[in-house]
Amino acid sequence: MRFKDYVLSLALVAALIMAPMAGTQAMAADTTDWRMGSGKMGSFGYATAASVAKVAGKYSKNLRFSVSPTQGSTASMKLFGKGDVDSCYASNFQLWQALHNEGPFAKKTLQRKVYQTIYTYTAEYSVMTLKKRDDIKTISDLKGKKVFMYPAATGPHDLYKKVFKILGMVDQVKHVEISLMQAPDLLKSGVVDAVVTCSVAQLTPNAYTENLVTRSDLKIINFNAEEEEKLKKGGVVMVNYDPKAVFGKKLGVDAVICPSIVFGYQTGPNMSADNVYNFVKSLMEHTGELVKVSKGFKGMQKGGLEFQTAVINSIPDVPVHAGLARYLKEKGVWNDAWKVGADK
């Protein structure tokens, strides 16, 4: 073989080898990695994030998702603020707190803007104690008691701090940090006197609450009408639902009256409008796949666009991500009174 032909052959082989590599590099360049902040490993917040990542990754264009577990939704927001994740697991209540530098954001504001992006399920947080505790019949009876207000650095923990502050009890209720799955034993031993529990979409208890209700003889401590009115005036959303439909038994009440917040996955100008539009569209059009994993997503599926717009209306001063805004405008449900978040 002549030297010239040999060189041409080498060039051809090199071109054949490099062609697929170039294609792979081009694909990688067009793919955006999206690190989703979630709840603690093994929690409902982590499981739902994994489901959202799977469905969004399946149907979103050029988006590759991974799930980053954190201590909870508040911790997730703080990691987002530092740039350690690309979106955070956060509720409408926490977005409002972040915007107004309240609660866990009072001393240090988030370093990055976070906008309303998508909401996936409601969560209701009621107080329970042992049925035999005759000294605890009302919320005011919790004064001077040890209460597990959900783990620190989570949305429900910050929610109950606000609840007790509004009711003038914040310095009279002692939070005791415990392991979720040890709650039944610690209630029985008196390490804690009462606990905050969780149901999802007024349909099902989360794993912690299901374990608690199964292993303990409990009663629900409701908020009375006066307390409920004070909390509503203070910006806390209150709900009323059938305990038997959720827990399989009444637990001492005909209806549960407690605070509720709506969780979802939120990001900011760090993610483009195109990417967020694809993310939102992929989830909104495939809620059936989410419901197969957990019936907690049924509210999102049944409510559809109204589910999203109702939550946005609950905190209208918190900006909406441009990607979500585009999707809502496309569907004809955008409200011009809402604010679109800046892209910087």
From TrEMBL:
SUPFAM superfamilies: Periplasmic binding protein-like II. InterPro entries: TRAP_TAXI. Residues 1-28 form the signal peptide. Transmembrane segments: none annotated. Pfam families: NMT1_3 (PF16868). Keywords: Signal. This is C4-dicarboxylate ABC transporter substrate-binding protein. It comes from Dethiosulfatarculus sandiegensis.
